[in-house]
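Morning. Coffee machine broken again, so started the prediction first thing and wrote up yesterday's gels while waiting. Chain of 353 residues, entered below exactly as on the submission form.
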Amino acid sequence: MLAAGGAVIGLAFGLFAQRSQFCLRAAVIEFWRREPGQKLAVWLLAFSAAVVGVQALVLSGAMDVSGARQLATRGSISGALVGGLVFGAGMVLTRGCASRLLVLAAQGNLRAMMSGLIFAVSAQASLAGVLAPLRLDISEWWTVEGGASRDLLAVTGLGPWGGLALGGVWLAAALWYALRSGWGFWKWVGGLGTGLMVAAGWWFTAAVSANSFSIVPVQGLTFSGPSAEWLMRVLSTGAAPAGFDFGLLPGVVAGSFLGAWLGGALKLEGFSGGASMPRYIAGAVLMGFGAMLAGGCAVGAGVTGGAVFALTSWLTLVGMWTGAGLTDRWLDRPRSAPAAAPVGRADPAMAAP
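Came back before lunch.
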């Protein structure tokens, strides 16, 4: 049941994300370049829909997320900050976060497929491989206990009603940017649907957990852990039992493929030359390590964890926006042209002797 639910929610997420071009990297670039447009509006719409959906479900008594790992267990502030910075830099280098790479790979982008595979290898190496000792060392620099200490709504005293109000403010900002950008049907539906699928993931696993005789963790959508899990399923026979994550990734691939087919976006794309490959490889490695260090990817920590107001998730989100903005500024942002000489003033270098 968990795998089937993960597949259905993943399929809808993939469809909505592909059709709306949901991407944190693109939103961050528009923000830092002071060119707010459709990409920033789509991300804000998805994020605010996730926050409103999750907090509304909590207020209605439909689910309890206090036992989720983002809130209940001991967390790492240093891991969230450093991991967010590293992940943000990596997603600029690969031109897409983990979920975006999965969506692009499903529509035929071989660059994204290669980056996604390296991301999965790096995530597994950071979880239980050669990069694990470094991850654990950084995680121990600064920690925070689980419970109320990791719950921003409890720390600030805002509670679920405050979280719902903040979600409404971000939703209003998203609508304002969207109306300025001039949107079509799929931008609206895709942006809202992407965020609501995050809320649906929380609700579904909470419902199964409340009614199951076995222990079922309450969790939301993320792509770092499932990517590492699927890698080990392919490489070995001792993988964990099938659960929500087992169905999530194939569902997202199927939904993204369906969205690309409906939109006429199916197209094989590869590297035009070898010069850009080191950039993508380095970015994928940074993203895999950063995601495991921070406890989630741009969706897992940034949206899923952000929707329940986990302290470490919000710190990760700040780190991602900062790391991505700085990397874009250093590597990709067009340099401004030299200022022209004032009209009517001769250039001394051109003056006659």
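Residues 185-211 form the longest helix (27 residues). Going to sketch it on the whiteboard this afternoon.
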